[in-house]
C-alpha cells in the first residue's frame, strides 16, 4: 500500500495538496463565486448595519403583508436570521430559498425592494441615484 506524501509532485508540477485544493475549487464553484467569496470575506470585517434599522416602518408593513403572509413574527425571525449572515452570497441564497418555499414571486416589486435593501447592507457604496439627464 502506497501512502500519499502531500509534498510529492504530480506530472503537472503541483504537489498533492495543491492539486486536491485546485480540484476541489474547480468542482465547487465558478470563478465568479470564488471572487464573491473573497470580496465577502474582506467585507465581513466591516460593521454591518441591522436590517431592522434599514427598513422604514411603512415598508416593513408592506413586506409583512406581501412577502410574509401577514405574519409579523415570521418577518422578524427572518430579519434576525439575515442579521447573522456575514456575506451577501449567503443572504441571497436564504432569500431565494424563502421566496421559493413560500411561493413569493421573486420579481415582484416588494420582493425586489426587500432584496435591494438586504443587498445594500453588504454593499452600501454600491447604490446609485436615478438622475434625469437632459
Measured as a percent range, the helix fraction is 55-70%
> Topology as H/E string?
HHHHHHH
Radius of gyration: 21 Å
Q: Largest beta sheet, briefly?
A: none
| Number of contiguous helices | 7
Which residues form runs of ≥5 with pLDDT under 50? Answer: 1-12, 14-27
Average predicted local confidence, pLDDT: 77
Strand content: under 5%
How would the global form be characterised?
Answer: globular
Secondary-structure class = mainly alpha
Give a count of the beta strands, DSSP E runs of length 2 or more: 0
The span between the termini is 76 Å
How would you describe what is shown here?
There is one protein chain. The chain has helices at 16-28, 31-43, 51-54, 57-66, 72-83, 88-102, 109-122. Helix 6 packs antiparallel against helix 7 (109-122). It is mainly α. It contains seven helices and no strands. It has a domain at 51-126.
Tell me the layout of helices and strands.
Elements: H1 16-28, H2 31-43, H3 51-54, H4 57-66, H5 72-83, H6 88-102, H7 109-122
